[in-house]
């Protein structure tokens, strides 16, 4: 199907998309005038405007078959009102309740039924993926489905027009979601990705040739070296690591992106180097807590004597502000395990029992910094092999479009969502997300009603 | 149109990247500083109007807006929404719900469950083994949503255990952009996430009916439901037995077949029940009635309510088991030892409901002579209509 859904400025149509063109169009959109125009013309232009947004990828005939003039609505009931009155109060007098000082007994806001005209389209799989914020446009969501990145109830579903049933669970590959919602790569990053891919290719071919020779030779001297040098350079390593962690965590917007990436990469490598000294070979793949305790153990770091709790609030403009909150989430998630701080103290206890000389003393803040940098490295790593800019950041202008309608329950961690029920209207609000007001919704509904009376 | 002679500076403006990158090593350092207007003048000597400067008017206006008013939308503000309606809001921010679309006053960005609240729901349902109904009332979350949350958290745990990739930074960013319902602190009251007693508007209630009733007579919801569904009025003795419409909820819970029917054959339909029966939590009305009747006996009322809920759960559980047993009775499962598959064998039913009156209906299973397979019929849509969970 040809994509006609371009964000042209001259037409100024609103689309299901997060682009900045669309944001601008949405901001300047005005309802078409009604004076001196026939009803047909009014309905036509209302239909044209709303169909450009709702199911632009659906053929008109297909949509006409889906349209239903009956619209689902609910009324929230108050249990105490129901208990107080069996309904005879509302029907008393001449049938519509007795007025209480000029006001009717029950006041309700009007239900915006015509805003729900396009509710059947919200059942479509591609639209639901867009609504769950897994894709940056309905077209992209459609592509994800066609390319086999979406499952419904655990089975791959390749039809974007699949109509979800209440209770259906759909899931998109997390990498696709991160690509759709993240920053695009800069030319510099793309080049880095290319280079790393090339390097990996070379390494592979080298390994095959020289794997057996290197293994036998390098084992013994490396171990001896590690033991000797460890004592000497722990202090320096820790200092350097901390400095790096600090610079990684503190850089805001004003530093250049490539420089920040270099810092990050440096830190990543430094941590790997330190961890590779440990005896157990599984540390690099272990959980964050284990890694952190191992790191502190190896460096024989010790917390300073005054354990003053200090909450370091991240600056909102800091691009890495997530890291600290991530740490909180991570620690709260480990509910069955021992908490991170316990592990830390255990590690310190072990270090002191070993009767080693205290290599260094760290303040709480420094510990936090180190931990935060580690958390970020685990959850949001720098990885040029990805299709999006790393560390992941939300794409620009995304927040203006970020909302999740009530008929979906979304779990962002695994990029899965459940279609709970069909969207409904209720007094004062409608659940179908539509950028148009009543002056467009009602004529558009009228357009599709024709020959149906 | 004959080819125009281009000055060197024009080619320079066409390749801004080249000049920007090689400006330090360029042999002509003055080139980038040449203004584009002069180059335009050189290339279009015959035109009197000012040439567009590489951009249409609309594009220029858009970037102007994006750089000034729209600059705030580029990045999100953690903890608050950042919608277009922010531009029109002058003065202090009201307590109104956030609206993403400036032209649509009846669509709101509703809060989503926070991570902690989601885990709390899972904890109460799976670990504390509370019923979905009770958790729904405690936390103010729709029962369908609770079921979905349990399912999703379960899936998340499984994926974490399997070491599958997660989108943690993405989740964090979304929860910063979208309003969330937090989990209440210890000892505080939980804010309700959404209305839990939504009454679906029944299509029968859409019609306007003129139904004369004497002013001296009270006309309640039970009678209104009968009028809407076209059922005759109740006998006086029958009506007198119902003191309040919520009495019917108890009765229907025990015996769902006690709902009467109107019409014949294909037009037969159940009589429309009052709102007290059709809401998701009818027991809340009963609780309120108890509270009204015994305002000073809070403990006794709470005790009565917990007993009522227990009874309701037991009845629903028994019914579910009965249905399950009936289904299993009709089904034979054969699972061979060396097979990847289970075979579920059901008796075929050939009645007019399945095969149709002419015996050619498509619902019935099996091959019948003269009836083409559904795949082979013309105009058959192959897109699945449901996926079994």
From TrEMBL, chain A:
The protein's name: Small ribosomal subunit protein uS4m
Q: Which residues cross the membrane?
A: none
Q: Where is the composition biased (Basic and acidic residues)?
A: 216-235
Any keyword RNA-binding? yes
What is the species of this protein? Penicillium vulpinum
InterPro entries found in the cross-reference section: Ribosomal_uS4, Ribosomal_uS4_CS, S4_RNA-bd, S4_RNA-bd_sf
The UniProt entry, under PANTHER family, shows: 30S 40S RIBOSOMAL PROTEIN, SMALL RIBOSOMAL SUBUNIT PROTEIN US4M
User: Which family is this protein grouped under?
Assistant: Belongs to the universal ribosomal protein uS4 family.
Listed under GO biological process in this entry are: ribosomal small subunit biogenesis
Return the PROSITE patterns for the record. RIBOSOMAL_S4 (PS00632), S4 (PS50889)
Which Pfam families does the entry mention? Answer: S4
List the keywords (alphabetical): Mitochondrion, Ribonucleoprotein, Ribosomal protein, RNA-binding, rRNA-binding
TrEMBL record, chain B:
Keyword terms of this UniProt record: Coiled coil
* The keyword Coiled coil is annotated on this UniProt entry: yes
**One annotated GO molecular function:** structural constituent of ribosome
- Which residues lie within the region annotated Disordered? 90-109, 354-377
Q: Which GO terms describe its cellular component?
A: mitochondrial small ribosomal subunit
Coiled coil ranges: 301-328
Which Pfam families did the record assign?
Bot1p (PF12298)
The keyword Ribonucleoprotein is annotated on this UniProt entry: no
Q: Where is the composition biased (Basic and acidic residues)?
A: 90-99
Task: Cite a single GO BP annotation.
Answer: mitochondrial translation
- Source species, domain of life: Eukaryota
Q: What is this protein called?
A: Ribosomal protein S35, mitochondrial
The organism named in the record is: Penicillium vulpinum
């Amino acid at each position: 199907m040809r994509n006609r859904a371009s964000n042209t400025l001259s037409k100024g149509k609103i689309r299901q998309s997060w682009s900045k063109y669309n944001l601008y169009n949405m901001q300047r959109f005005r309802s078409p005038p009604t004076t001196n125009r026939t009803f047909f013309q009014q309905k036509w232009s209302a239909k044209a405007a709303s169909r450009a947004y709702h199911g632009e990828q659906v053929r008109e005939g297909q949509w006409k078959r889906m349209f239903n003039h009956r619209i689902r609505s609910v009324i929230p009931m108050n249990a105490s009102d129901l208990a107080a009155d069996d309904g005879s109060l509302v029907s008393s007098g001449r049938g519509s309740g007795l007025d209480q000082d000029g006001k009717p007994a029950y006041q309700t806001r009007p239900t915006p039924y015509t805003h729900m005209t396009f509710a059947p389209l919200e059942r479509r799989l591609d639209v639901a993926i867009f609504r769950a914020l897994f894709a940056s446009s309905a077209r992209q969501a459609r592509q994800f489905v066609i390319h086999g990145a979406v499952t419904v109830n655990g089975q791959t579903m390749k039809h974007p027009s699949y109509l979800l049933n209440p209770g259906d669970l759909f899931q998109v590959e997390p990498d696709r979601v991160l690509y759709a919602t993240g920053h695009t790569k800069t030319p510099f990053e793309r080049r880095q990705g290319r280079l790393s891919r090339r390097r990996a290719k070379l390494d592979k071919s080298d390994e095959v040739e020289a794997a057996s020779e290197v293994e036998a030779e390098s084992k013994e001297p490396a171990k001896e070296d590690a033991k000797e040098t460890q004592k000497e350079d722990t202090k320096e390593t820790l200092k350097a690591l901390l400095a790096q962690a600090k610079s990684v965590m503190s850089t805001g917007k004003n530093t250049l992106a490539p420089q920040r990436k270099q810092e990050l990469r440096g830190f990543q490598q430094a941590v790997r180097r330190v961890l590779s000294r440990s005896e157990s070979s599984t540390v690099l793949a272990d959980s964050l807590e284990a890694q952190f305790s191992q790191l502190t153990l190896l460096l024989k770091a010790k917390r300073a004597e005054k354990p003053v709790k200090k909450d370091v609030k991240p600056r909102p403009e800091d691009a890495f502000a997530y890291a600290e909150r991530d740490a909180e989430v991570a620690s709260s998630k480990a509910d069955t395990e021992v908490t991170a701080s316990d592990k830390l103290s255990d590690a310190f206890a072990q270090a002191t029992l070993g009767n080693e000389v205290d290599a260094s003393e760290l303040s709480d803040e420094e510990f936090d910094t180190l931990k935060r940098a580690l958390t970020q490295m685990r959850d949001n790593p720098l990885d040029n092999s990805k299709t999006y800019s790393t560390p992941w950041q939300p794409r620009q202008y995304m927040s203006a479009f970020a909302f999740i309608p009530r008929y979906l329950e979304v779990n962002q961690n695994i990029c899965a969502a459940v279609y709970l029920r069909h969207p409904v209207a209720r007094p004062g609000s409608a659940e179908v997300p539509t950028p148009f007001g009543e002056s467009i919704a009602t004529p558009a509904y009228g357009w599709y009603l024709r020959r149906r009376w | 149109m004959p080819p125009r002679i281009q000055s060197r500076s024009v080619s320079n403006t066409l390749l801004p990247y080249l000049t920007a990158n090689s400006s330090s090593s360029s042999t002509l350092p003055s080139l980038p500083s040449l203004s584009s207007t002069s180059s335009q003048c050189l290339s279009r000597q015959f035109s009197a109007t000012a040439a567009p400067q590489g951009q249409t008017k609309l594009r220029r206006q858009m970037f102007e807006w994006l750089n000034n008013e729209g600059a705030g939308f580029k990045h999100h503000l953690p903890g608050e929404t950042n919608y277009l309606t922010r531009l029109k809001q002058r003065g202090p921010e009201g307590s109104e719900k956030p609206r993403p679309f400036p032209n649509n006053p009846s669509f709101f960005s509703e809060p989503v469950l926070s991570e902690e609240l989601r885990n709390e729901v899972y904890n109460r349902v799976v670990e504390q083994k509370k019923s979905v109904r009770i958790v729904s009332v405690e936390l103010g979350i729709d029962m369908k949503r609770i079921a979905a949350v349990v399912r999703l958290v379960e899936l998340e745990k499984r994926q974490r255990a399997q070491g599958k990739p997660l989108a943690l930074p993405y989740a964090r960013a979304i929860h910063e952009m979208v309003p969330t319902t937090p989990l209440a602190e210890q000892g505080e009251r939980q804010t309700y996430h959404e209305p839990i007693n939504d009454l679906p508007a029944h299509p029968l209630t859409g019609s306007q009916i003129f139904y004369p009733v004497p002013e001296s007579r009270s006309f309640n919801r039970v009678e209104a439901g009968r009028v809407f569904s076209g059922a005759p009025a109740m006998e006086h003795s029958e009506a007198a037995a119902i003191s309040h419409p919520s009495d019917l909820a108890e009765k229907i819970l025990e015996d769902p077949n006690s709902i009467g029917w109107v019409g014949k054959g294909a037009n037969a339909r159940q009589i429309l029940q009052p709102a007290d029966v059709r809401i998701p939590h009818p027991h809340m009305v009963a609780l309120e009635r108890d509270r009204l009747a015994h305002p000073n006996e809070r403990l006794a009322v709470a005790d009565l309510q917990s007993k009522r809920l227990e009874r309701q759960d037991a009845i629903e559980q028994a019914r579910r088991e009965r249905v399950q047993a009936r289904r299993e009775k009709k089904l034979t499962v054969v699972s061979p030892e060396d097979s990847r598959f289970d075979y579920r064998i059901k008796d075929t039913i050939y009645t007019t409901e399945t095969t149709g009156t002419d015996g050619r209906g498509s619902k019935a299973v099996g091959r019948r002579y003269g009836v083409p397979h559904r795949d082979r019929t013309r105009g058959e849509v192959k897109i699945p209509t449901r996926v079994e969970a």
